[in-house]
């Protein structure tokens, strides 16, 4: 999938997500205030944070898909990881705010059960957010975007928080009013955990972490299959946004010309990129292959 098509997919899922989150924020916010539900108000703020992070996602991936320029010769793909970090930090700040608000309600001791209408708002939110999670995660995996996948988990965390909100409001209506603010605190912990996980994943990718071993093995096999390549050595692969950069050494027959050695490297690179469209670039160093010399004690044993 080329970058333009990839960005179109992101734009489509982002616009749908923004429409859903605007509606849910308004509905949960209004009903939360009128019904007097701390947990539902917390849930509304979570949906509002989803709206903000979707805007960040759209802008971040727009930058990520810009073509290479003089200052960014490899392109702007790492903007995806920066976007993931912003989403994660937004989640963490939202979680702390929600948790503090619920805690203040508990401290005040003025806890009243919410109105029954709060239940219907939560059920609507749960259905909407779970549907958005499934749609967003499907798109994120198809286009192999960590930022879109991070946004999908943000949607899922909102669905989880709606479950907690439902339990809290239900408990409050059954005669346990403390359940409502306690659910708000539980929601904040769920959001905080999601934010920290996304942040750590983004840091890992920004540290040029190697991909899964099977990806590296596939690259080795593709290079080894190229005509003229005798051996593939010292393969290094690092993440670059949604792409990978590859550095490797190959060895060729020492008696061939420089041009023929260059041809073997070019064929190896072509094979690698053809087999994996996530490879952005491949740098290959060509070495001559020499037979391994036997150890001196082995030679001595042969003469005996």
Task: Specify the CATH homologous superfamily of the largest domain.
Answer: Cation efflux protein transmembrane domain
Question: What is the string of SSEs from the N terminus onward?
Answer: HHHHHHHEEHEH
Mean pLDDT: 80
CATH class of the largest domain: Mainly Alpha
Structural class: mainly alpha
**In total, how many domains does the architecture comprise?**
2
Enumerate the spans where pLDDT stays under 50 for 5 or more consecutive residues: 296-304
Give the C-alpha Rg: 27 Å
The main pleated sheet reads as: 3 strands, mixed
CATH architecture of the largest domain: Up-down Bundle
Taking the alpha carbons of the first and last residues, their distance comes to 63 Å
What is the 3D shape?
A: elongated
Helix content: 55-70%
The fraction of residues assigned to DSSP E strands is 5-15%
Number of helical segments with 4 or more residues: 9
- Please name the CATH topology of the largest domain: Alpha-lytic protease prodomain-like
DSSP, total strands = 3
Largest sheet: spatial strand order: 1-2-3
What are the defining features of this structure?
three-stranded mixed sheet, transmembrane helix, 9 helices, 69% helix, 304 residues, mainly alpha, Cation_efflux_TM, Alpha-lytic protease prodomain-like, transport, elongated, Cation diffusion facilitator family transporter, 3 strands, Alpha-Beta Plaits, Cation_efflux_CTD
